[in-house]
Amino acid sequence: MVIEQKELQEMIPHAFPFLMLDRVTEIEPGKSGTGIKNITINDSFSEGKSNFLPATLLIEACSQLTAVVCSGNTDTPRAQSRPSYLAGIPTFKFLKPVSVGDRLTLKATIIKRVQHLLYVNVQALVESTLVAKGSIMVAGQQ
To answer: Which residues contact 44 (CB under 8 A, 6 or more apart)?
Structure first.
């Protein structure tokens, strides 16, 4: 199941220039997903001196993919399964820089649920090279 940008805007409350996903290419609702972000010269971060994707925006992209994975959950009502905010970043390692011209592939897998808190493993790859990995926590709406 492919989810294009227009549908993504309906699933998460972000719009250009802060929508950090171009499309979701694979999704297993409530479990895992894979998304794509093409890094272009038109992205707002590249207007300054640097052509590298800032680390905070890489984490944001992973969080947005997680929100899509959760909002696609058919086991519970959408309002209960959709995370409302990023609750923490227990670990995150940046292995290589991501620059203009790269095609970023994001992967998110929910590994644990504790009440309304989700623990998610995330990865970011450029081609087949791992550029970042970590775990994030998102808190769902009660």
So the answer is: 17
Cβ atoms 127, 52 nearer than 8 A: no
**Domains located in the chain, CATH noted:** 3-140 (3.10.129.10)
User: DSSP states of 45-88 as a string?
Assistant: GGGSS--B--HHHHHHHHHHHHHHHHHT-SSS-HHHHSEEEEEE
φ, ψ for residue 34 (rounded to 5)?
-130, 135
59: exposed, middle or buried (C-beta count within 10 Å: 0-12, 13-18, 19+)?
buried
Nearest to 55 by CA among 106, 90, 99, 94: 94
The tokens describing 131, both together, are: 């550029």
Q: Which two tokens stand for residue 126?
A: 């450029």
**Along the 142 residues of the chain, how does pLDDT read in single tens digits?**
788 877 887 777 776 777 889 999 999 988 999 999 999 887 777 666 678 888 999 999 999 998 888 876 434 444 444 446 889 999 999 999 999 899 999 999 999 999 889 999 999 999 999 999 999 999 875 4
- Beta bridge mates, 110: 120
